[in-house]
């Protein structure tokens, strides 16, 4: 006999995970906290994911599911260079406050410390790097940027992605997205060939 159909999507549950992690941090996170945010019972969430670790690992895999979102944002931009900037800005949480960001960084710390999570995170990092390298090559081919070493510049942008959020939380003047835009444009400005 088939089970009852799921009325709450994994997407909604993972949005609840993201929200709850930002609010309470990964250490204090409970299945009940996520269930309340998602509008499901704790029992239903436990049946679907079994444990908090399984839920968080599924969430990490979804968040790291390739660079599809980065590519989508890039593709909707007016030019390859605009796409690089838009993709970088989209990588950060535009509306996070310092407390939320600190809670997300605590989750990142857990991911780095756990080999299974770290493997997922590393794969995501590699895919974002590969996408950014591809975008930079396209901007160079369009005559927008002079890029002598696209892989190296992509590594700089990946480092910027991680670092800007931390720096912003220590006293950024705008939003995380605004700070990312400012920093990316600053890095790319000396390489611009037009515009």
Q: Report how far apart the termini are.
A: 63 Å
- Structural class of the secondary elements? mainly alpha
Let me know the largest β-sheet: none
**Which regions contain 5 or more consecutive residues with pLDDT less than 50?**
1-5
Q: Number of DSSP strands?
A: 0
Using the coordinates above, name the CATH class of the largest domain. Answer: Mainly Alpha
What this model shows, in words?
Residues 7-67 form the HTH tetR-type domain. Keywords: DNA-binding, Repressor, Transcription, Transcription regulation. One of its GO terms (molecular function) is DNA binding. With 195 residues, the protein is mainly α. It folds into two domains: 1-63, Orthogonal Bundle (Arc Repressor Mutant, subunit A); 65-195, Tetracycline Repressor, domain 2 (Orthogonal Bundle). 73% of the residues lie in helices and 0% in strands. It contains ten helices and no strands. The protein has helices at 10-28, 31-38, 42-49, 52-63, 68-75, 80-90, 98-113, 115-141, 150-169, 176-188. Helix 8 (115-141) crosses helix 9. The longest helix has 27 residues, at 115-141. The radius of gyration is 19 Å and the shape is elongated. Residues 1-5 have low confidence and may be disordered.
């Amino acid at each position: 006999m088939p089970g009852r159909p799921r009325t709450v999507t994994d997407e909604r549950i993972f949005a609840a995970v993201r929200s709850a992690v930002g609010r309470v941090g990964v250490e204090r996170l409970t299945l009940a906290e996520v269930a309340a945010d998602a509008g499901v019972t704790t029992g239903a969430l436990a049946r679907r994911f079994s444990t908090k670790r399984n839920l968080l690992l599924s969430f990490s895999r979804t968040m790291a599911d390739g660079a599809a979102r980065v590519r989508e944002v890039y593709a909707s931009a007016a030019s390859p260079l605009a796409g690089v900037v838009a993709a970088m800005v989209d990588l950060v949480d535009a509306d996070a406050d310092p407390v939320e960001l600190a809670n997300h960084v605590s989750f990142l710390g857990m991911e780095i410390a756990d080999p299974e999570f770290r493997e997922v995170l590393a794969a995501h990092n590699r895919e974002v790097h590969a996408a950014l390298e591809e975008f930079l090559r396209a901007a160079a081919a369009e005559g927008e940027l002079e890029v002598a070493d696209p892989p190296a510049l992509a590594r700089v942008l990946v480092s910027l992605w991680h670092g800007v959020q931390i720096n912003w939380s220590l006293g950024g003047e705008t939003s995380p997205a605004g700070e990312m835009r400012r920093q990316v444009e600053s890095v790319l400005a000396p390489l611009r060939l037009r515009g």
